[in-house]
Every structure is written in structure tokens, then in C-alpha cells.
Known about the structure:
4 copies of one chain form a homotetramer. The first copy, chain A, is built from 8 helices and 17 strands. The first copy, chain A, is an alpha+beta fold and 353 residues long.
Amino acid sequence: MAGNTFGKLLKLTTFGESHGEALGGIIDGFPAGITIDFEAINNDLRRRKPGQSSIVTQRKEEDEVQFLSGIFEGKSTGTPIGFLIANTNHKSGDYSEIKKTYRPSHADYVYEQKYGIRDYRGGGRSSARETVSRVVAGALAKQIVPNIKFTAFVSAVGEISLDKKYQDLDFSIIEDNVVRCPDSEKAKQMEQFIKAVKKSGDTIGGIITCVIQNVPIGLGEPVFDKLHADLGKAMLSINAVKGFEFGGGFESARMRGSEHNDLFNEDGTTKTNFSGGIQGGISNGMDIYFNVAFKPVATLLQKQDVLTNQGEIIELQGKGRHDPCVVPRAVPIVEAMAALVIADSFMLNKIFK
Amino acid sequence: MAGNTFGKLLKLTTFGESHGEALGGIIDGFPAGITIDFEAINNDLRRRKPGQSSIVTQRKEEDEVQFLSGIFEGKSTGTPIGFLIANTNHKSGDYSEIKKTYRPSHADYVYEQKYGIRDYRGGGRSSARETVSRVVAGALAKQIVPNIKFTAFVSAVGEISLDKKYQDLDFSIIEDNVVRCPDSEKAKQMEQFIKAVKKSGDTIGGIITCVIQNVPIGLGEPVFDKLHADLGKAMLSINAVKGFEFGGGFESARMRGSEHNDLFNEDGTTKTNFSGGIQGGISNGMDIYFNVAFKPVATLLQKQDVLTNQGEIIELQGKGRHDPCVVPRAVPIVEAMAALVIADSFMLNKIFK
Amino acid sequence: MAGNTFGKLLKLTTFGESHGEALGGIIDGFPAGITIDFEAINNDLRRRKPGQSSIVTQRKEEDEVQFLSGIFEGKSTGTPIGFLIANTNHKSGDYSEIKKTYRPSHADYVYEQKYGIRDYRGGGRSSARETVSRVVAGALAKQIVPNIKFTAFVSAVGEISLDKKYQDLDFSIIEDNVVRCPDSEKAKQMEQFIKAVKKSGDTIGGIITCVIQNVPIGLGEPVFDKLHADLGKAMLSINAVKGFEFGGGFESARMRGSEHNDLFNEDGTTKTNFSGGIQGGISNGMDIYFNVAFKPVATLLQKQDVLTNQGEIIELQGKGRHDPCVVPRAVPIVEAMAALVIADSFMLNKIFK
Amino acid sequence: MAGNTFGKLLKLTTFGESHGEALGGIIDGFPAGITIDFEAINNDLRRRKPGQSSIVTQRKEEDEVQFLSGIFEGKSTGTPIGFLIANTNHKSGDYSEIKKTYRPSHADYVYEQKYGIRDYRGGGRSSARETVSRVVAGALAKQIVPNIKFTAFVSAVGEISLDKKYQDLDFSIIEDNVVRCPDSEKAKQMEQFIKAVKKSGDTIGGIITCVIQNVPIGLGEPVFDKLHADLGKAMLSINAVKGFEFGGGFESARMRGSEHNDLFNEDGTTKTNFSGGIQGGISNGMDIYFNVAFKPVATLLQKQDVLTNQGEIIELQGKGRHDPCVVPRAVPIVEAMAALVIADSFMLNKIFK
């Protein structure tokens, strides 16, 4: 396997399987002399944690991060930050069934084909539990660029979606509801809907919108590493993500240039922002905003046909504690990946300007 | 500037400005011993070339590629392939106006802010002319994986979009119409629409769909470098792209798990393919398919407000030879970037299995 | 800080300070399906460990490695291997003196200048304790290429050096003496000499020779990543290393082409091996051999002038448990770095041939 | 083939075979706004050029560099600098002999084994002609750090070597003699010796010393990417190099700590400089100096046994225009590689401090 490192100058490398000893990572390139806000890190971990509310999985994972290096007397020293999150909740369960079967729309089958071996316990490396390391790193990345504000929220669950623009929403209420939606009416509908879906043993997809404010002009490298290309890759690397659009997004494809062009004000800001804060791959100082589409969770609490390693189709009853809808818990993950990209671009931009 | 290299093992590094001496690149990591099909490369260049039809820009660019190394007696030697495309069409025009102004939704302003200097002639490095090097490299990448079939086509222009699934389309007619749409009725409508838009001095967005067939199981690295994350980054790095979705895409966000899960057949193939040929970041042998949204071209043949480097807003009349709609010419670019990602993954997969 | 990752496909990223919680690393790119020989890893750790004999430091470090991921039921799964070595021996000592002073020929001063902050306890990240992670990774790397034999040994301590060619030495006795020298007479002299140097509160430099046997033809990339350039960088990245030469080495500079050229046998082997097993950056199947020069340890058990952070020179009495000569314990480190380079090249060579 | 890119932020990628169309490269990461001194580039090319004097090869290569991008109105724009050097001198010679034979101590045999194919004309990619691109890039790199002074010179040819320390030499006379040695007496001896060696159809090795002055404190990354490890790799990547040592070098291995430690002055400089300007991988502001050993050129103007691709040993008479001693022409190459490493470290250091 390759590709367990993310970033150019601010580099996060992660390890860990769902039911192994621990998950964790190393952040190389973190600048020296930053006073670490541990509470902010713990807060983002709490937001990602299972068992927060009735609409997310009831698994108990402590998700306590332990820092092993790179921080001395409360400050970053510039050396790599090693950290781990112990897997305290892995039971020595009965894996005889899962060991021999490939669940639909999971990575079981392709892992076995690609590696000839897999840690089948709880999905192994393909488990979304892997994102806990991203949240730790993202929470640290935010501290490199304290003036930049990252706000992600749920903008759609199934057919229920926000009908307001992000500018008209009250971000301060996002954490007040279990869905993490900045429209309390919609939040209630979404919550009810997720509960109903859960009751039927089914799952549902959703969309997260992320807004990045107060971004300096000049972040991003204008050819292959366009700022939105790096953001897109970051989002598409999150489990269950199926699509990414920024600024006008897919709607831009239906528009004319005369509508879509963002006319300048005299100070270099623009009157509209279909560009989504990025021109030619470079941040232009306007808000960056994008949408990330998540598919419904593949693990159902229903009977489902699965493939065995003997090439047979058998019926298997899904069980366990799983999320009926992934988006509420994915909000801090989207922010974390956005922060990693922006902090990295910020550091790179110090050189080439 | 950083980020002029794309790929992990098959690495394309490009250079060149719109009106400089030449554009070109170096492909490192191209395997030895492949008999190069030069006609295939020229064909892809022809498809990207300006002046092919009445709905694309009438600029004349020869776009003849010259190979400088890495090929000996018709075969690749394994050494880096250096190539260039001379800029034969750059006129010593009058740049006094463009030099001082920043066009809306172009990269003029951010380049100047980021670098303090820019080659203002024809957009410099931010010009889509840069993609000519990608097409050369992509055409070579296809030859590394000759059994894999890359097919991109226009699936929407403004509000006009295909209503058939890709499986029901006749790919053999894509190159028979100037729009590159595999539905001749829709192609005609699109062509008429683009002509009308052009006549009004305006531009229009569109969507390209790409289908990759006959992909072996196992391509892609399952954490940060998921196959679809790399494809997404590749597409988002193309000029004017605003969104990327694969498989079920944004529609997946509205679906339930019981609908969206792709049940297995006994041979490991799946009955449906909402996954878009990729599970957990790894190809599963089914068709890979994705959509790429392009915004309308920012250069209008109308009067438009622009910003000057003195901080004034003035009116400027757009002129020159520009595409009213970028998607017909972007079809080979989408294929090229897809081929670069797939060939790279293919090579990487030789090791880690 | 950057540069805590080593390798192209087999990537080792390390973290950890001398007196922090733990040291450790992540190995990304380790192939799947290899049955891990844990005893071999522990053996290499034992060889590097302090307190093995009277001529090395008497510090007690347990150096027990804990694997956190990537290994399942005794086999590698292809996922990243996370590991750590807890720092069990760090005493809450009195650091008030060292905190304010910069020791000569240590990294204290440059760390403070570069980062504005340093973990002064035991040298922090600049401590050779960092190499423990390299030994773990190197021991794993050897298991990727089990047919290739890595043998490092001490060939000089101060003025005492081997006068035989490596072909005339008995590698089987290397571990029989505390110096790790394959000539028992010389080993005794070296041991006596080190003891005498130690008694005087001084330290002494030395040379390690490494021989790599049974290397397949074709490893190495012939331009910037020549096999010997990668080996050289690997060796020069080890603490206290001042020089690297391979094959004829510095002696080649005094030779004529007619002496130095390695004439072929009919089977492609060569009659002589001044090339050191590498031609044009590519292994040619002959033994690879090289020398690595280590400076004397900078920490003396004598009084020495040091610089304070107030810009004063004061006298400081060196104390503690330190190596009088680093080469006996560095033998497994040299092997480890050699194994990382060779295994990485071996993997890369699978693709480009 | 991989590894045709050198550098982390300042990245040089090269292409080109000895007798192909052209050699050249792309420099990505070159900062914007630098007024390019073309004369300085041409001067370094002239120093590397064949045919400068009677002791170097009499081949005529124009070595004129053509810049294709990245420079506008005399200044760098920040975009990648593409450049090429046409191969004007390649004759359509008779290659029937060389095609079938592998010369001793050349890369012919290993290329054929590794790639299954090779451009046999003049050594192809393994020719030292490849270094022409390095000289162009190095001359540009020097302009990023104009205050840092790079001085390389010949310090030994065969048994004739300088007996003075570099501090006692007059660098201003280096270019006054054909050997590029800053001791006119020794220079004469060396010149006579090279002529005698040449007359006998033989070749001779040598050593180049490089001194880098006025380096700021803090360059280099202290673990795997120690400044001297990167310099070492850079030097070892030059054709014919067999060894690298910096500061005390191999001599350090014979010294005691009490002799070798560099005691501080109150201003942070040191009284001695056995460290060679680098502590713990980080520049300390003192002069950086190192030696690079070159083997004798493998091409002799004598009869020599060669291997054929039929597995036979036959006698071949060496002919053509070749250097009897490579070091005089390698002086600007050593400087170029040093400048690439230092400028790269300089840029990286802007971020992590």
C-alpha cells in the first residue's frame, strides 16, 4: 500500500486498523513555537466521536489522543509530532462469518484481491475509524492559520436540503443540533428522517458544505496543484465521498459567461463569487466554499446478499452499531482535511511569492 | 510556483506560457520497450486543436509535437521523454491594454498578487494552451495500458443534457459531430445552442462524462490516494473545471443504502454499479465513470467591466478568437488526465500486490 | 522541520526525541503477505542497544519495539506498519545547566538558531537515539529481500585499521567481539584502545565497512538517484558520519583507467570490482561495498568550554553515560540504512524494467 | 527509469541523450522577480564545455542554452523555466560495433540488463553530457542566493595533490590555468601529468574540493535530509564520482573528540571547523567545504577487452575524442549541484524557522 501520506510541506502520515492496537500518525513540517491548544483538538475529536447522539452509532470509542513527540512545555518544537489513539473498544468478537464474506459496497473484496490478505476485523484499514487521525492533524493545522475560519455543516440529508445560501445561515447554531445543520427547522426534519431511516434498518446519504473565510490572496499552485484540486482530492479521500464541487459547481455548467463572471470592485474583491474564492487555482481573498456528497453507509441492519470467498452468494443479517447517516460525524473530518490543505498551501506560499 | 509535476511513478512535468517560445514537458517513468504510436498522439492533439469546427476558436495553432529524447528507433528506452510544441502563432500584438487590466474570472489579478509579475500575453501560464502538453502525455500514457479503454464525451451544454445512461449510448459516433456527443439529436441541439450563444458574444458551460472500461481489479491506494481522489484531482486541475462526481455522484447523497449498495454476482462483478467501478478507493473491475463540470469561458466578446492596476474599474470590449464553449475541445484533455492517473496506478500496483 | 521521511516506495517516517514519551515510525509501502521474523528485529535492536559491553555506554534502554498496525496474524497486510519504542529510561534530571548552554560540535546551537526553541533534554531530536527507529525499519526491510546479505563491520578505530580486503575476512566472527570487527587480532587492539581513550575521558572516531552480497542486476536509477548516491545519502544521514566512499573510493582518484576498469568475464561478471558493484548508478550483480567514516563522539567526560545563551564562554564538566566510540553500536544502523535503500530500489525496479 | 528530478522545492527535472535531438530540463519552483544574469549562465557552460584546452576532449559542442519559458522581459516570472541545449554535433557515425558490445566500467551492460534496450550512441542517457543541464540549473540556482559564494577547484590529479588548506589558497587564480587549480605550481605539474597520461592513451582520476562561503545559519533538515547528506547525494549523482567527505572527512575517523570538537567563540562562530560548517545536519554559518573523488575516465584510447551481446570477449581499440581526466571540466558541475542543494535548503528554511 502506498499513499498514507497527505500534504506537501505539512505532511500527515497515518497508520492503524479499526481493531488493531492503535491508530495514529506523524505530522512532519509543523512549524516551531506554536502554543498548542489541546482543548481545541479534543473538541474536534468529540465532534467526530461515536455515541454523541441518538442518530449516530452507539459504539463507545474513547478517542483520546496521546502526543508522543514534537511538543515541549506546551509548544511545538518543529520536530515531527507523533500521536496515537489507542483502540480500547475492540472486542475479541466472533469473526468467523465476516472472515469468509465480502459485503456489498465495502472494500472487503478489493482488499483481498489487491493484497491477498486483509485484517477483516471491523473493516481493518478501510474503516472510517482511520479518519480519527485526520481530525487530530486537522485540529493542529487550524492552529497554524488561526485567522482563517473553517466552517463545515450538513446541507442535505437525502432529499431534505437547505434552500438558503450560506451567507444567510447562522453558523453559531451548527453545534446546537445533532445533525450539525445551521437551519434549525431543517435540522429537525433531517433528524426525524434519519431516525425513521434507522428504524427501517436502512441508511441515507447527505451533503456537507464547507466555507473557509478570511483566506489570504495567493494560496494554491496554478497548474496541477490548483487550490481547489487539492481541496477536491482531500475531500474525495474521505470514506464514502462521491462528489466535490466548489463555487458555482455543477450549476456553473448550465450558466453563461455573462452571468458567471465575477465582476471586480475597485479593491480587488468581486461583486459575486461564483468562482468560490479561487481564480486559476489561486485564492483571491473571497470566501472559499464547496460541497461534498456522501453516499449512504453500506452497512445495513437488514438481510443482504453477500459474496463468500468460495464464490457463493449467501444471505447475511447486518448487525452491530453503525451510523444510519454519516454526515453529522463527518463535519469535523471535512474541516480537518480543509485545514490541512489550507495550512499546507499557506506554508508553501511563503516561498514562491 | 510549485506543482508543475503530476503523477507518482509516471511523472509529467510541464512548462510553457501561451505566448512564450514553446510549451512542453518531460515524462519520467515511462516504461522501456514500448513501440510508440505517433499517429495516436497526433490524433489526440488534433481533437484538442483550435480551429477544427465553427463552434470552437478559429485561432490557428499547429500543435505539432517534437520529441527530443526517450524514444530510439521507434521505441521507448525508459529514459525521460522530453517534448515540445512550438508556439508558432504568437503575434507581437498590442498588449498595452491587457498589461494594465485584470479581466473578471481570469487569473490575471491573482497571478499579479501572488508573483508580483506576470506574462500578460494571452494569459501566460494560466492559459488553457498549457493543456496541450497534457494531451501529449496522456496519449503516451494510454499506450502503457493498451487494453484499457478511455472514452470521454460531452454530456451537457448549458441546459441541454443527455437523458440516456452511458451504457445506452453509441460511443462510435462521438467523433462524428463537432460537439463530441454520442447522441446525434442532442449533438445537433447543442451545436445550434453554442452557435447562438457565440453570436450573442457570450459563452456557455457544460459537462463531460468519462468512461474507463476494462480496468483491472486493484488499482488505487486506499487511504489518501484513493483512485477516485486522484482522478478527481486530475480533473479539477484542468482549466475551468468546477466539479467532479463519480459513480452515483451527488445523486448518491439522496439515496438509501438499500438502493445504493451494489450486490455481487458470484464472479465478483456487481449487479449495479453506483460505486462507479471503485470500492474503498480501489478499482473493482467494473466500469469507472465520472462527470466533470466546466464553467463558461470567462472571455466574452462583449463589453465588460475590468479592474486596472491603478484600482479603477473601466469598460473593456472583449475581442479575439475564443471558444464559446470549452467542452468539445476538452474531451481529449479529460481522457488524457484519466489515462495519466490510470497508467500511474497500474504501474504502482505492480509493486504492492 | 522537514525531511523525517526516507525512501521512495518503501517509506520510513520517524518521530521522537531522546527524552520524550516514545520514539517510533511508520513504514508505508511494505509489501503484503510477508511472514514477519520478530526475532530478527529484536536481534538488530540488541546489537544497537546501549550497555552491551564495557566499551559502549552503560545507559539502560530497553528498546522494546511495539507494533501497532500493518501486521495481522504474523503477516504483513500491506497497510502501514506503525511502531513505537517507549522511552522508559528518561529521568526527570536536572536540566538547568544544559538548558542554557550550547555544547561544542553538538546541534544545540543550530537548533536554537533554526527553530527558536529546542527540547534540550538529552539532545532531543538530534540525539542518536533517533536511530532506533531506523534499525526497526531496516530489520523489516531485510525481510523484503531475504536473498540479499547485508554485512557491516568495524574496519577502523582511530589509527588502527584492517589491512585485509573484505574478501579475506571471516564475517562469521563479527559478532564474537565487542568491537564488531572480523579480525580478532585487530579487534583486541581496538578494544584496548577504546578502553584507554575512555579512561582519559576522551572519544575516538572510526570507520564502518558494509558489504552487500547477492544483489540482483538492475537496482538503482541512473541519473540523480544513482544507487550509490542513495546509499551515500542514507549513510551521511546517520549521526556523526563525515564521509562515504564506495568501490575504489578516494583511492580511485589516484588511479589510471587502465588499472581501474573492471574487465568483463563472458558471463557479465567482472574480473576486478573497483566499481563496487555499481555501474552508472545501477547494480551490476557484483558485491556492493562501501566505507563510512564516523567522527569521534562530541560529548567528552572532561572539562570543556561551552557557549551560553547569554553569549558567554564557560567551562563545563562533561558527565553521564556516553559512548567513547560510536562505531560498534553503529554497525546495525549502517546495515539498516543499506537495507532500506536496497529494498526500496528492489521494489522500484519491479516497474521500470 | 525514475529519478530524473532533483530537489525539494527548487526542482530540476532533466531529459536527454548524448546523441538525441537535445538535452534540457525544467526548473520548477524558481522564485519570481529575479533579473536573470544570462552571461553568468553562459560562463558556467563555457567552463564545462569540451574543447577549452589541450587537456580536455576536443569534441566541439556548442552548448548554447535556449530558454523556452519562465522568463519574461529578463525576469523570472515564477513559472517553470524550460530550457534546452540542442545536440548539434551528433554525427551519423558508424555504431555497428558499439551496438553489440559492452565497454568495461561503462553503463552499457547494466542499461541493457535493466531496460532491455539502450540508445548506444555515445552512451545515451549515461553520458556525462547529461550534466550540461545541471550546469544551466546550477547557474540559475546561484542567482537565488547571490550572497553565497560557491568555489570549486581541482585539489588532486592522480598522486599530485594540494598540500595547503583551502584558506591559504588564492581562489582568484583558479580560472587562470586549464586544470582549475588554485596553486599555480601544482597546476603546472597536474597539466604536465595529464598530458603524459593522455599521450599513453590512458586516463587518470582526481579530486575536486568545494568551498561554500557566507552561508546563513539554519539550512538543512536535521534527520534524513541533513544538509551534508543532500550535498553528498548531489555529488555522488555526478558521473564518475566515487566518494564524498565534508569537514574533517575520513580524517575525522582517526581523531579524538578533544581534538575534533570545534570550540565556540562568544559570537557563535567556532575556533576550528572540523564540522565543515554543518552541525547535526544544519549549517552553522561557518564555511562549508567538502571533497569529491572522481575515478579515471573509463574510455581509453588503447586496446581493451570488451564483452559482446553474444557473451564473447573481444578486443576493441578505443577511439574518439575523450577527456583524459574529468576533473577540470567537472569543477562547474560540482558548483552547480552545490548551488542547487543550497538554494533549495534556503527556500525550505523560509518556512520552518
